[in-house]
Amino acid sequence: MELADTLASIGESATLGRIFPRLPAAAAQLLGPGDDAAVIAAPDGRFVVTTDMMIHGPDFRLAWSTGHDLGWKAAATNLADVAAMGAVPTALVVAIAAPAHTEVAFLEAIADGLREGCAAMAPGCGVVGGDLSVSATLTIAVTAFGDLEGRAPVTRAGARPGDVVAVSGPLGASATALALLFAEGVHEGEPHRETTDRLRAREGAALAAQLAPTPPIADGPRAALAGATAMIDLSDGLALDARRVAAASGVAIDLDTASAGSREALVGGEDHSLLATFPAGTRLPGGFRAIGVVREGSGVLVGGHLFDALGGWDPYLAWDGQRG
Amino acid sequence: MELADTLASIGESATLGRIFPRLPAAAAQLLGPGDDAAVIAAPDGRFVVTTDMMIHGPDFRLAWSTGHDLGWKAAATNLADVAAMGAVPTALVVAIAAPAHTEVAFLEAIADGLREGCAAMAPGCGVVGGDLSVSATLTIAVTAFGDLEGRAPVTRAGARPGDVVAVSGPLGASATALALLFAEGVHEGEPHRETTDRLRAREGAALAAQLAPTPPIADGPRAALAGATAMIDLSDGLALDARRVAAASGVAIDLDTASAGSREALVGGEDHSLLATFPAGTRLPGGFRAIGVVREGSGVLVGGHLFDALGGWDPYLAWDGQRG
């Protein structure tokens, strides 16, 4: 039996040589990997930047996520933060720390997920640099950049009473998929790969909402062009993230019971859908649909009633740091 | 006895509230922390970007490094990569993943190290965003940005036969300090805090070369202005990094025996000094001193003789992933 190449067996330099050709190119790249730093175009004299780490245990389980899933999701979550400013994503840098025994094929799959995720969600955006290290804990840190194309950034602070509240992308689909994984992707109470593989064959599309989500990145700049007054990426659930917009803008956000009133929609995290507010009468762009209105006041209402339960228990936190 | 606040005991949000006020502000920041992403000025329509992760175990030991050391070094290593392009550092984003039991005071010390390191090495550069996560392994991922001020980036590829080879910053001081830590900062063969504290009281300045280095960041832009043809940050030792410049430029680099011929200088890593080449006759800027010449050929020579031993054993790699 031939042993699979690992990070330890072929070394950092050879591993990078296997990963680099799989990474997506960035149209904005002026000078790419291979020097001390890269140089990226910022045509309007500014750039948008966000960073997010994914940690084995709190953020994902290797029994559930493939390398491809992890690369795709690392792209998706960061691209959504760029899009939520109304910017077009231009480039990523990716730092990966992995145990020495990690198979190179797994790291190649992460690169494939980054490439295919960028191609699907933000064509032209690519990886312009990175870092590969050894760690006891698999960690993927992505920093993403975007171009505002001369527009003002769309912050969380601009919502005004009378604005329409709209969302693009699913509400609660990621939490529903996570519940399915905890119910059926386990064996004797633990996340389990073979069980998950069978579940994936049956429910792949549903699971993708959690494992490899596809937030509507292009709708970020579309919302900005349509005059969005505030925008946020739904990382922590509609109720909590809408409350952030309400607090930053000094308003209340009143959500429709019918379109946003389910428990999964309100408190389910990690959809990375875009929540935006638009002046009344705006023709909503892309996949945006109205789910409420902005009112004077504070906090989040559902059907006119104050909604206080903002988030659920995060089942990832129960992980003890040593298991799969 | 009052228990110290930890990441787990006060939570992510309160911890961020303690860290944020200690972080350095960036003059280039147009929109800072608190939204989905930050917006940074890029006055000449481009920005330089580099990313580097520090991992507990392979990159540092908690028995040797204080939180302040780690913040300072995380800034220093990334600022040096920006400076090596000839750019002025403008901003950092910092993602930290730490065990749940990590004391908030330790994370505050990291922030203090970032702030004081930026103030000392790159005034005006600040932290514009970040991410805080829980992980079994303490991990600090920094992405740094720089402004080329309209100049072309100084890459590794421009050295020409006849150029002077020069360095700014120490050669081998970091490796010497690491050897001292392995010799005297241990107890029964293991890195040990109390032993190290006594060593630090006696040899603090020497140890700082490894634990909290101060590379000559301002000399990066100075070198570019003086016409540097190639530049690199000395991460992996003079011999290996000079070989990278030689390979990228298609030349040989011949180092003086007297100024660069010691084993520590040649193979000791992590000085983060700047190695640059300048046209013959250039008045060397800042702290640069001549240590050799560029010749036709390939590889690294010392006193005219090919030097093949490029790097030493990395003692950090002997760490087993579980110890201090």
TrEMBL record, chains A, B:
One annotated GO molecular function: magnesium ion binding
EC number: 2.7.4.16
PurM-like N-terminal domain sequence ranges: 34-146
InterPro entries linked: PurM-like_C_dom (IPR010918), PurM-like_C_sf (IPR036676), PurM-like_N (IPR016188), PurM-like_N_sf (IPR036921), ThiL-like (IPR006283)
GO terms classed as biological process: thiamine biosynthetic process; thiamine diphosphate biosynthetic process
The keyword Hydrolase appears for this protein: no
Keywords: ATP-binding, Kinase, Magnesium, Metal-binding, Nucleotide-binding, Thiamine biosynthesis, Transferase
PurM-like C-terminal domain: residues covered: 160-263
Binding site for Mg(2+) 4: 36, 50, 81
Residues reported to bind substrate: 59, 270, 313
Residues at which Mg(2+) 5 binds: 236
Catalytic activities: thiamine phosphate + ATP = thiamine diphosphate + ADP
Pfam family, one: AIRS
Positions of Mg(2+) 1 binding: 51-52, 131
Residues reported to bind Mg(2+) 3: 36, 81, 233
Binding-site residues for ATP, renumbered to this chain: 130-131, 156, 235
Binding site for Mg(2+) 2: 52, 81
Biological or metabolic pathway of the protein: Cofactor biosynthesis; thiamine diphosphate biosynthesis; thiamine diphosphate from thiamine phosphate: step 1/1
Family under the similarity heading: Belongs to the thiamine-monophosphate kinase family.
Described purpose of this protein according to its UniProt entry: Catalyzes the ATP-dependent phosphorylation of thiamine-monophosphate (TMP) to form thiamine-pyrophosphate (TPP), the active form of vitamin B1.
Additional note from the record: Reaction mechanism of ThiL seems to utilize a direct, inline transfer of the gamma-phosphate of ATP to TMP rather than a phosphorylated enzyme intermediate.
Annotated protein name in UniProt: Thiamine-monophosphate kinase
Protein species of origin: Galbitalea soli
Gene that specifies this protein: thiL
